Amino acid sequence: MDNDRRFSQLGGEENAQIDDDGRPKRKGTLVTASAHIITSVIGSGVLSLPWAIAQLGWIIGPVALILFALITLFASTLLADCYRSPDPITGRRNYIYMDVVKANLGGRNIQLSGIAQYINLIGFTVGYTITTSFSMAAIKRSYCFHRHGHSVGCHTSNNPFMITFGIIQIFISQIPNFHELSVLSLITTTVCFLHASIGLGLSIAKVIGGPHVQTSLIGAPIGEDMSRMDKIWSTFTALGNLAFAYAFSDVLIEIQDTLRSGPPENKVMKQASFTGISISTLFYILCGLVGYAALGNNAPGNLLAGFGFFEPFWLIDVANLCVIIHLVGAYQICCQPVFAFIESRSRQKWPNARLINKEYQINLPNNGHFRFTHFKIIWRTIYVILATLLAMSLPFFNDFVGLLGAASFWPLTVYFPIKMHIARKNIPKPSLRWFWMQTISAICLITSLAATIGSVGSIIKSLQTVKFFRSMS
């Protein structure tokens, strides 16, 4: 009798506390899954959209934004069906992206998917550290601008803010696992709507009452401030920024694994993906297009921390505070799968090591308790420290965001979901369905390569002038 049947036959109190795989009962719902997705998606990506639209223009920008949304939604529905295998409703659960690839493809695909996923998740935590420090610095600078005038530079080092954010994450990273993030995601989803709405409101106010700014059908023009090569780099980087704006496939399976049994998990996850992507796209279109209309071809790389707006300074501070709170949660959405992977592999390799396996418990008020191991505390602390140090050495917001988006979009959002769908459905190679799905994958590959080249080129250019560990806002 297999594992699923054995646990399905258990009765009474024991059965009420466990799922069909013997793990603690999952409690996730459509609302919490949608919140996880929105927390992952509407992060630092929304802040760079006016800049990205400014590089692409009124035609390519909105079209690219909608196409990225449609492709992500399509691929996420394919990936949601892979959570259980071989049957998407009654099959055995796959807990992480690598498990899904192992069950459906096998071979080297397992290692390749794992490398792509975890490198990108680590990259996201670095990117969120950079973004948060910019918002923290923006709060300090906005007060300085308000007090001394907009002509004063009010420059400040980002490093103390990165360190502060890192210290906060060291404590929050002790949350046991991904399943405990529902409340945090709901909070961060609320504040992400707030900061996006403030950015949108400021943009609308500037469009209505501010001076006319220059915009273009093809984006920022080639001229004295932008060479032809700079235009190519910035265009490709902008595509990477748009791809990054929809990056949640890295954690889709982990989110789906939080859903409670009842309605089939794949159906709930598809609904959550549609809800999350639809809401995110609406905000993206509004913030990106209205932000471009307000700020023009000179839109800053960061809508709120780049000071396209100076007043009312207190409202800008509130928006940046919301960004900070939001990215605290988004950081955890990305790093918890990394924590779980390393800790699981460590327990398997050293099952008798007390440092790794000896569990301690601290009783909390209201009959709660906190379980931990020494290894978990040490390893998670070291991870946050290293991510913070890397962020301090590579403070390139748009270039780094573009690189992350380019690196993750094709393999994790498009290639593996399509390849697994073809394998699961036994779609023959010469068929029309096989051809158009492979065409979508090929187009996305070319786009990702172009965005990667653009972001790397921009980073190389930035490295010529940057002083390591001396990032300034």
UniProtKB/TrEMBL annotation:
State the compartments where it is located: Membrane
Where is the segment annotated Disordered?
1-25
Give the matching InterPro entries.
AA_transpt_TM (IPR013057)
So where does this one cross the membrane? 30-53, 59-83, 118-139, 183-205, 232-253, 274-294, 314-342, 377-394, 400-418, 439-460
Q: Where does it primarily localize? A: membrane
Which keywords belong to this entry?
Answer: Amino-acid transport, Membrane, Transmembrane, Transmembrane helix, Transport
**A matching Pfam family:** Aa_trans
A GO biological-process term: amino acid transport
Q: Does the keyword Membrane apply?
A: yes
GO terms for CC? membrane
What are the Amino acid transporter transmembrane domain coordinates in residue numbering? 27-460
- This chain belongs to the protein called Amino acid transporter transmembrane domain-containing protein
Native source species: Cinchona calisaya
